[in-house]
């Protein structure tokens, strides 16, 4: 959105972080203290106490109601959040008319949270850049909106019905769209077939229906795609090779699908950093993931029929994090010792029988988690793990831990019977 508005906030964000006003979370989202949010909203309300339509942002239901229903002429409002009336002392009034928005020509962010909006939105909101429409029901109203400047579109938990033709029409209307979030939209039949270039960078299809991916449709138009989320797309069974040709894709999320094999060829997904296939209970073959040379995070948690890692897993030299918890994996291949950048290894509730020798010299490893590995017994030798700070062995049968300097890190959740020796 900032790029679309020709804003360059990086310097300001760095300053806010240094002042502890702002943090960036694991999912790259902004986090701030609740008191700071209250303070910021107080500043906005002070822009105009008497007339909320003169403020830049509106989120309070009463202020929104006043501004929309009285149709106060203002060009000040840039961000508007319309949510259901939650006041228990008043009857719910969650219906508006698109004519109520006709005077808001400078709104660039609009969130509609399960409210009914009657009428026709055609030619309204010409400055709209970001639209979150939770609970959208009618595609005619969606397509009537001015999408000329739209960069981000969220349709989470909507009942709107979109077929493959509607999907193409949407991309033709929103020619600047970079983020499309259709999470939990059960009546959207999504497509990855884009023969012409589109600007999409982030595509979320979690818990959607997918069109036929086994045909010869082209994904060549997804030249800018960086993140693809297909979690819990229940009919998704195989990875189309056309998808593997995406040059900029950095994140691929396949959790909870029916996929059986992760099949890649040499040169596939050359920019991929994150691959997640958790809870894929049909997944049995991941032998070709060694072709993903830029991979940094591999998450295969709860793939309950996965029995082994490929022997050449060590070729993923940039891998930093690997989660193999709740799988049938009983041992790590010797090539794991070549994962020189590995920092986190989780194998909770797996069937390891002895402490894996392949990890004993990974000097960048910071965290090892063997919780609930009930077959794991013997000595845990971590003398070669110079960066290790966290070791979890609770509910394993490890009898003792050998370390060069036990005082420099935290050994967490050890069973009472485990001896800890400093060597």
Concise description?
The chain has a domain at 325-423: Ribonuclease Inhibitor (Leucine-rich repeat, LRR (right-handed beta-alpha superhelix)).
Could you describe the 3D structure shown?
This protein has 423 residues and is of the alpha/beta class. The chain has a domain of 99 residues: Ribonuclease Inhibitor (Leucine-rich repeat, LRR (right-handed beta-alpha superhelix), Alpha-Beta Horseshoe). Helix content is 11%, strand content 19%. The strands form five sheets. A 16-stranded parallel β-sheet has the order 3-4-6-8-9-10-12-14-15-16-17-18-19-20-22-24. The protein has a three-stranded parallel β-sheet with strand order 21-23-25, with no helix packed on it. The longest helix has 12 residues. The protein is globular, with a radius of gyration of 26 Å. The mean pLDDT is 87.
Present the secondary structure layout.
Layout (H helix, E strand, L loop, with lengths): L9 H9 L4 E2 L5 E2 L2 H12 L11 E2 L2 H9 L9 E4 L12 E3 L11 E5 L2 E3 L11 E5 L4 H6 L7 E3 L9 H10 L5 E3 L7 E2 L11 E3 L4 E2 L16 E3 L21 E3 L20 E3 L20 E3 L21 E3 L20 E3 L20 E3 L7 E5 L8 E3 L4 E7 L6 E3 L6 E4 L1
Parallel strand pairs: 3-4, 4-6, 5-7, 6-8, 8-9, 9-10, 10-12, 11-13, 12-14, 14-15, 15-16, 16-17, 17-18, 18-19, 19-20, 20-22, 21-23, 22-24, 23-25
Antiparallel strand pairs: 1-2
């Amino acid at each position: 959105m900032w790029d679309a508005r020709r804003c360059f906030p990086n310097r300001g964000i760095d300053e806010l972080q240094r002042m502890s006003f702002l943090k960036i979370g694991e999912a790259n989202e902004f986090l701030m203290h609740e008191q700071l949010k209250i303070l910021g909203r107080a500043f906005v309300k002070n822009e105009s106490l008497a007339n909320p339509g003169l403020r830049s942002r509106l989120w309070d239901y009463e202020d929104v109601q006043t501004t929309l229903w009285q149709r106060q002429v203002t060009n000040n409002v840039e961000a508007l959040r319309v949510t259901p009336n939650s006041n228990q002392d008043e009857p719910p009034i969650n219906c508006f008319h698109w004519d109520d928005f006709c005077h808001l020509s400078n709104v660039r962010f609009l969130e509609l949270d399960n409210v009914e909006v009657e009428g026709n939105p055609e030619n309204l909101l010409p400055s709209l850049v970001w639209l979150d429409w939770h609970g959208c029901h009618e595609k005619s109203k969606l397509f009537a909106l001015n999408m000329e400047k739209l960069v981000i579109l969220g349709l989470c938990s909507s009942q709107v019905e979109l077929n493959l033709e509607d999907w193409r029409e949407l991309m033709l209307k929103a020619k600047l769209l970079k983020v499309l979030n259709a999470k939990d939209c059960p009546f959207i039949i999504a497509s990855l077939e884009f023969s012409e270039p589109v600007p999409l960078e982030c595509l979320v299809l979690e818990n959607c229906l997918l069109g036929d991916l086994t045909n010869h449709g082209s994904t060549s138009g997804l030249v800018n795609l960086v993140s693809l989320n297909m979690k819990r797309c229940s009919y998704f069974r195989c990875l189309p090779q056309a998808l593997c040709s995406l040059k900029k894709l950095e994140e691929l999320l396949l959790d909870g699908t029916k996929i059986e094999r992760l099949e890649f060829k040499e040169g596939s997904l050359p920019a991929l950093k994150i691959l997640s296939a958790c809870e894929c209970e049909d997944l049995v073959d991941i032998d070709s993931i060694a072709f993903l040379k830029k991979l940094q995070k591999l998450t295969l948690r709860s793939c309950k029929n996965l029995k082994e890692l490929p022997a050449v897993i060590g070729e993923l030299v940039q891998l930093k994090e690997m989660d193999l918890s709740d799988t049938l994996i009983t041992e790590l291949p010797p090539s794991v010792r070549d994962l020189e950048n590995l920092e986190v290894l989780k194998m909770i509730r797996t069937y390891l029988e002895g402490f894996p020798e392949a990890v004993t010299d990974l000097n960048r490893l910071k965290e090892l988690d063997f919780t609930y590995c009930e077959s794991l017994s013997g000595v845990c030798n971590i003398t070669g793990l110079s960066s290790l700070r966290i070791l979890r062995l609770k509910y394993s049968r490890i009898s003792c831990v050998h370390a060069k300097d036990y005082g420099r890190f935290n050994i967490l959740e050890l069973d009472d019977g485990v001896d800890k020796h400093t060597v």
